[in-house]
Write a structure and sequence with these properties.
The chain is α/β, with parallel strands linked by helices. It has 26 helices and 19 strands. The strands form 5 sheets. Strands 2-1-5-4-3 form a 5-stranded antiparallel β-sheet. It has a 5-stranded mixed β-sheet with strand order 7-9-10-12-11. The protein has a 5-stranded parallel β-sheet with strand order 15-14-16-17-18, with helices on both faces. Keywords: ATP-binding, Cell inner membrane, Cell membrane, Kinase, Membrane, Nucleotide-binding, Phosphoprotein, Transferase, Transmembrane, Transmembrane helix, Two-component regulatory system.
Length: 820
């Protein structure tokens, strides 16, 4: 503001000076000599005219001719000045003046030769000259009159201009005075403002001094030579020096370790030369400093440069980060320990998988052998109980392994078009008999637009809804369960709700039910079996699909679980169904390499029952020796064995070329994906997951011996009544009830697991044989599809639901009411 005011004052001053000079110039023009004025010159012309006429009269007697000639010359020059001088240009522009000047000049031009001639001739011409001058009298008077008029007009214009200039000068002076007054006020205000700022600056400087002195960080100021200029209290505490001990001394000689001297000097020199350095004005960096005791310790250093004229100083902010570094090291160690714990957990899960599945292999396999033998009805009941308990244990193991897989953050990428209405109907049909067994009604309310096909992950949606329905059935008796599905208007979103009228959940337990391995002591008590992982797995699956699983519940009233997924609607895709086939192998010679006695004996019995010749080897080394001595059509080898494991045994067999052209199949309880990848990369043809069933063994033998024989699957149902008559009513109904339980269990396992495993393949193969005996062709085809599916692929849940709906309608008339 002050700058603008000063500029304005300067402009006014310059303007006033200019106007003053104009006024002075005009005043000077007023005092110009008369010779420079028009009227004066015209008056001289008139006077010369009269004088030359007077002298002409006197010279008629021949006297005073020289005086006449002098006056004539003066008169002629003055007329010539009027005619030619630029000063009289304005006068000559007047037409009347021009005409009169021409007449006067003609008279002069006529007599000029006579005046310049002999005296005699001049004397004779004087009377005529006098007459001519007499005629010019009026012209000369008119010139003077016109000149006076012009002079008066010019004088009036000049006065007016001077008046305007004086007025302008007056206004400029008024503006100048006002600007000076405003400037004075502004300077006064700036003075008070400067005083206030100075006071604030002093207060700020005092606060800054207090802050610097009380700062927890060391603040050290040095000059370009590296000499310390200031040293605050925190620096004294951190470094152990007093201010008096270090001020004036070089920074590198007091606070910097010797191995950093060169870096400090080079960085300062580089900054002074180019304005750039690796440390100055680069933000905080981790460096080392030295205490008075000589101890070297880590610091966080921030160096800033400040320049006042030609003087450059460096302000160093130093923070002792010894504790932070130690804390970070402890955190790293804790992180490493946690990662090591995770690896131990994964290893533990792998070991548990093997150690639990190995005895289960023996248990379930032995039960399978016993089930094929002739036994009493009571004994069959015991076997069914044993099988159900064993398979439940296997289901719990699978849940733990699935939780481990979900924690790795694996994304679900199997997004495809599917019929949502068909999937929901299949889920309801699947739970019809379990719900009826507990006295429950199950309903489906699906509010979708005309097109029910959408894009999503049907297997995972099926898995989530199956788990939620199973959970609702577990805690609801003689009540109602409903699946409510609604499309969100204007959005590509579908909301799923599973409602039940069961026992309900207390408010304080609503979040706990989603935690790992949590079972509640009230409605979710231990009287219900389970690992406490079902809802935890379900929530993780929903989250990985981009949704969020929520719950509302009241004790004694029931619960509602709901989630929303993005499922864009599409037009119905075209689908085709393939007709499967089964393979029947011929007898071959098989080598079993297995260190577990029970498993080895079971495999031997299973294969012998299929008509194959079996040789057994205990451990990897004995298996290599057996292959070296004898030719086999197929080798089935365990992985985890003491001494030489299966992978090393395979490596030696392949390296020594002991079994050229013979497929070697791995037999293991390691179901984790990484384990299977490692086994297949080692060179095994395929992996059999324990427990291996007769059906699974038959499939592997048929697939890798090159002796397959294809048979067609019958398309019509067999006579179940004939099956009942062959086995007896009680035994057949018990078998049918057990068969229904096993199919439902497999469906639930596939839905909860979300991917086909070896266990699923084995169970599907076994159930496929039972379905064939019962004439359930569609169900058998579906089971064979599951059996032949790739490991960890998405199971055909919709097709299985359709097949089971058809099969359950066929079986319903032949089951006891308690089994329906």
């Amino acid at each position: 503001m002050l700058t603008l005011t000063i500029a304005f004052l300067a402009a006014l001053g310059v303007l006033s000076l200019g106007l003053g000079r104009i006024v002075l110039s005009e005043l000077d023009n007023i005092g110009t000599k008369a010779t420079d004025r028009l009227t004066w010159n015209l008056a001289l012309v008139q006077i010369s005219h009269l004088q030359v006429r007077e002298m002409a009269y006197r010279a008629q007697g021949g006297e005073n001719l020289h005086v006449f000639r002098l006056e004539f010359g003066i008169y002629s020059s003055r007329v010539a000045a009027l005619r030619d001088s630029p000063k009289f240009e304005k006068l000559r522009t007047n037409q009347l003046v021009g005409e009169k000047l021409i007449r006067i000049q003609r008279q002069l031009d006529f007599f000029t030769p006579l005046v310049d001639g002999p005296d005699k001739d001049l004397v004779q011409s004087l009377p005529a000259f006098i007459d001519g001058l007499q005629r010019n009298n009026r012209d000369v008077r008119d010139l003077v009159r016109i000149g006076l008029q012009l002079e008066a007009q010019s004088s009036a214009d000049h006065k007016h201009q001077v008046t305007l200039t004086l007025k302008s000068l007056g206004w400029v002076l008024v503006a100048l005075v006002m600007a000076l007054a405003f400037t004075a006020l502004l300077i006064q205000r700036l003075f008070f403002r400067t005083y206030e700022l100075l006071s604030a600056h002093r207060a700020t400087a005092e606060r800054l001094r207090v802050m610097v002195s009380s700062s927890l960080d060391a603040i050290v100021m040095v000059d370009v030579r590296g000499e310390i200029l200031s040293f605050n209290g925190a620096a004294e505490d951190i470094f152990g020096f007093t201010k008096e001990e270090v001020v004036g001394k070089r920074l590198k000689d007091t606070l910097i370790p010797i191995h950093h001297h060169k870096f400090t000097v080079d960085n300062t020199v580089s900054f002074l030369k180019s304005g750039e350095g690796n440390l100055i004005n680069k933000g905080p960096v981790l460096k080392e400093a030295k205490r008075k005791s000589g101890e070297v310790f880590p610091i966080e250093l921030n160096v800033s440069s400040s320049q006042d004229g030609d003087n450059i100083v460096f302000v160093c902010f130093m923070r002792d980060v010894t504790d932070r570094i130690k804390g970070e090291e402890e955190l790293r160690r804790a992180r490493d320990d946690a990662l090591a714990g995770e690896r131990v957990k994964e290893k533990l899960l792998t070991v548990l998988s093997h150690e639990i599945r190995t005895p289960l292999n023996g248990i379930l396999g032995s039960i399978e052998l016993l089930e094929n033998a002739e036994m009493l009805s009571q004994e069959q009941k015991y076997l069914r109980t044993m099988r159900a308990s064993g398979e439940l244990l296997l289901h719990h193991v699978n849940e733990v392994l699935e939780m481990s897989r979900l924690e790795t953050g694996t994304e679900f990428e199997n997004y495809e078009p599917f019929d949502l209405d068909e999937l929901l109907q299949e889920i309801v049909d699947c739970h019809f008999f379990p719900a009826k067994a507990r006295g429950n009604k199950i309903r489906l309310r699906c509010r979708l637009p005309g097109e029910t096909h959408c894009v999503g992950n049907p297997e995972r949606i099926h898995q989530v809804l199956m788990r939620l329905l199973a959970n609702a059935l577990k805690f609801t008796e003689n009540g109602e369960i409903m699946i409510d599905v609604e499309h969100q208007a204007g959005k590509d979103e579908v909301e799923f709700r599973v409602c039940d009228t069961g026992e309900g959940i207390a408010d304080e337990d609503l979040e706990r039910i989603f935690e790992d391995f949590v079972t509640l002591d009230t409605s979710y008590s231990r009287k219900r079996e389970g690992t406490g992982l079902g809802l935890a797995i379900t929530r993780r699956v929903v989250e990985q699909m981009g949704g969020e699983l929520n719950v509302e519940s009241e004790l004694g009233e029931g619960s509602i679980f709901w989630f929303t997924l993005s499922l864009p609607l599409v037009t119905q895709p075209q689908t085709t169904k393939a007709i499967a086939s089964a393979d029947v192998p011929r007898p071959i010679h098989i080598l079993i390499v297995e260190d577990n006695d029970i498993n080895r004996m079971l495999l031997e019995k299973l294969l012998q029952r299929q008509g194959h010749r079996v040789t057994c080897a205990v451990g990897g080394a004995e298996g290599v020796e057996a292959v070296e001595k004898e030719r086999f059509d197929l080798v089935i080898m365990d992985i985890s064995m003491p001494g030489m494991d299966g992978i090393e045994a395979l490596r030696q067999i392949r390296t020594r070329r002991l079994a050229e052209g013979v497929e070697i199949v791995a037999l293991t309880a390691h179901a984790a994906g990484d384990d299977q990848k490692r086994i297949l990369e080692a060179g095994f043809t395929e992996i059999l997951i324990k427990p291996a069933t007769q059906a699974e063994l038959a499939r592997v033998i048929a697939a890798y011996t090159g002796q397959n024989k294809t048979i067609n699957i019958p398309q019509e149902n067999s006579d179940i009544q004939q099956f009942i008559e062959a086995l007896g009513d009680e035994k057949a109904r018990g078998y049918l009830g057990n068969f229904c339980t096993e199919v439902i269990q497999l469906k639930q396992d596939l839905s909860s697991h979300g991917q086909v495993s070896k266990e699923h393949q084995s169970e599907a193969h076994r159930l496929a044989g039972s379905a064939a005996v019962l004439g359930l062709a569609t169900l058998r085809t579906c089971m064979q599809d599951i059996e032949s599916a790739e490991l960890e692929s998405d199971p055909p849940l919709i097709a299985l639901a359709e097949a089971w709906t058809e099969a359950s309608e066929i079986l319903a008339p032949h089951l006891d009411s308690s089994q329906q």
